[in-house]
């Protein structure tokens, strides 16, 4: 099997497949601009997991600050929120590939992929300029799409983060601030701060927006400066490094299969949760499911999200995009009124219809019903621009 792309989706699938003894070649871009900078991936999990050795931080308490300044602090047990740095994850999977008899890491640019009898072929260009053709029974492609599929709603989750070092202890390392709405809200969409403490004097602090277009770097920097100084009151601090990224939030239908033997995975295959931007947890579930299906002799790739979850996300996205619901109030109300363990399972698409109904009653019912009623009549439209590059994939 060949996996194209060495991001979260490609590496996660390689990680699972090497555990089954499969023959796997991962094609990653050579060093240079095509390779993304180090990224932060976060997710929640229960108990001990098989990624614990690459988890660099975790939080047992979650907090949301409403726009009115009132905060909601929840204990999500049995879940904890966990952070993985992409460099550590890459090193782990690369080591697994090196130790696996059928594992291989190839630094090259994948140019074309096409079906052939009995599988597919990938034409690559090596850093030397020489061409190489790979043949496999199946190809899993995680590379960014050239354009997003037609959609009824298209928003972006875009952010910039600072890894800050303060002159004094300013953070509680046990508490992660998932959403802090005490920031100026844009005319369209919503904005929030996000704080993941790494030590009493160190944290990842981000400014995030859900809206239709990204900001300039200067605008992100100004928003971060205001949040750190005026909202958090951090005092003197230094910025040790930064990260920035854009994640599509859309109800587009992402095809899982582009050929008889060619499959899409990761964001390109619809793994990003449309209404929240969370991706890493869905990638892990899908990778495990693909490895199990191949081990059992099945050739299908299960979708990363269920139909009910996607339908609910489509309603929420449309309601946010039209301004029928107030984003900060909506998310703050969920954390105030829904048991945290159930809410996290809901965000992961792991709740029952009855649980989803009880959660729905804690949202603005009439705006959501109006939006649900109009969605079937809205056309899906293509967006002319290329989807934004995901230079960073933080808190998802």
Write a brief structural summary:
The protein is α/β, with parallel strands linked by helices and 396 residues long. It contains nine helices and 18 strands.
Protein model, in words:
The protein has nine helices and 18 strands. With 396 residues, it is an alpha/beta fold. Among the domains are: 155 residues, FAD/NAD(P)-binding domain (3-Layer(bba) Sandwich); 61 residues, no CATH class. Helix 1 packs parallel to helix 4. The chain is globular and about 60 Å long. It starts with a strand and ends in a 22-residue tail after the last helix. The C terminus is likely disordered.
List strands and helices in order, with pairings.
Elements: E1 2-4, H1 8-18, E2 24-28, E3 40-46, E4 55-59, E5 61-65, E6 71-74, E7 79-85, H2 86-99, E8 103-107, E9 109-116, E10 119-125, E11 131-136, E12 139-141, E13 154-166, E14 175-180, E15 190-199, E16 202-211, H3 217-231, E17 237-250, E18 262-264, H4 280-295, H5 307-322, H6 327-337, H7 340-347, H8 353-360, H9 365-374
Helix pairs in contact: 1-2, 1-4, 5-9
